[in-house]
Amino acid sequence: MSTPGSDRGHLLTERPNPASEDLDRLPTASLVALFCANDLLPQQAVAAAAPALAAAIDAIAARLSSGGRLFYLGAGTSGRLGVLDAAECPPTFCSPPELVQGVLAGGAAALLRSSEGLEDLPDSGRDDLTQRGFGPADALVGIAAGGTTPYVLGGLAHGRAIGALTVAVACVPADQVPMPCDIDIRLLTGPELLTGSTRLKAGTATKMALNILSTGVMVRLGKVFGNRMVDVAVTNSKLEDRALRILRDLAGVPRQQGLGLLQRAGGSVRLALLMAASGLEAEAARAALDRHGPGLRRCLDGLGVSLQPTSPPPL
Q1: If both were cysteines, with which of 60, 83, 114, 216 could 102 make a disulfide (CB 3.0 to 4.6 Å apart)?
Q2: Mean pLDDT value across the chain
């Protein structure tokens, strides 16, 4: 929705796309081909924003390493993408639910039913963050495809005022729409094929950027070893099978032995790997992680031991 008294028609995300001016008359095969060609642009937009993404990863990881939390703030599609990324962190990285939080204008109800009118209230962004206990030690990622959402701008301004780390994610140039932030991520995907529908290219680029952001932060926090999700707890059969494959591939542990290790480790893959490498039992391994960790690689180095991986299977 428009900010009061403004004309958003000049925004890059609101301009009509000349390539789709006959969209309603295209044969279906041509329509699909046009979308496929246009959807190559989000990858290019994310690649162009790589320096800002890298800066944001390091800055957010530093905040979280010191006890802070990460908040995504947005309205509509942008807010839902933030909530989605936050919700995927606990099962992927065994992070506590409060470590990465998605804050959406309209709350949980807006996940399923549009409440776009709430995005025009700048104080609501601040108030919703305050209700979550957002403070100076935390990091905030404000997501607004067009860069003008008052809900997000109000939250970012509040974050800067109290000394929190603030990161903006938008799909319009910074000189077109400045946003109050410490780190500015601009994903310039251009006009949408369906004019103004930023759930399309802008949404795709935003999802890609958030994937990189949260995964990069968790890597920096030591929740990944190589390219494996080692900081994961076994809570179902799929995760048990994945855990046993990780133990086999990274530590050469046969399946039956892996089951016993996981049981003694309370389902923690990271702890089971450390036990396999060091010969320590669970309590001593936990103490070693507290002393040298939290990352597995740092702890292994601190103990002077290493994993003994098996040869990778052929692709």
Answers
A1: 83
A2: 92
Give DSSP secondary structure letters for 195-256.
TT-TTTHHHHHHHHHHHHHHHHHHHHTT--BTTB--S-B--SHHHHHHHHHHHHHHH---HH
Task: Give the pairing of strands 100-104 and 139-143.
Answer: unpaired
Alpha-carbon distances of 275 from 4, 143, 229, 263, 278, rounded to whole Å: 60, 41, 17, 12, 5
Average pLDDT over residues 37-41: 96
φ/ψ of residue 203, rounded to 5: -65, -40
CATH architecture of 8-220: 3-Layer(aba) Sandwich (3.40)
Residue 3 pLDDT > 50? no
Q: Where in the chain is the domain with CATH 3.40.50.10490?
A: 8-220
Catalytically active residues are 88, 119
Where are the CATH 1.10.8.1080 domain residues in the chain? Answer: 237-303
- pTM over 0.85? The answer is yes
Cα gap 151→142, rounded to integer Å: 9
**pLDDT tens-digit map of 192-246:** 999 999 999 999 999 999 999 999 999 999 999 999 999 887 888 998 999 999 9
Longest dimension (CA), the chain: 69
Beta-bridged to residue 74, according to DSSP, are: 104, 143
237-303 is classed in which CATH architecture? Orthogonal Bundle (1.10)
* Burial of 5 per CB tally in 10 Å (0-12, 13-18, 19+): exposed
H or E stretch at 101: strand 100-104
CA-CA distances (angstroms) from residue 235 to 116, 240, 267? 37, 7, 8
Burial class of 246 by CB neighbour count within 10 A (0 to 12, 13 to 18, 19+):
buried
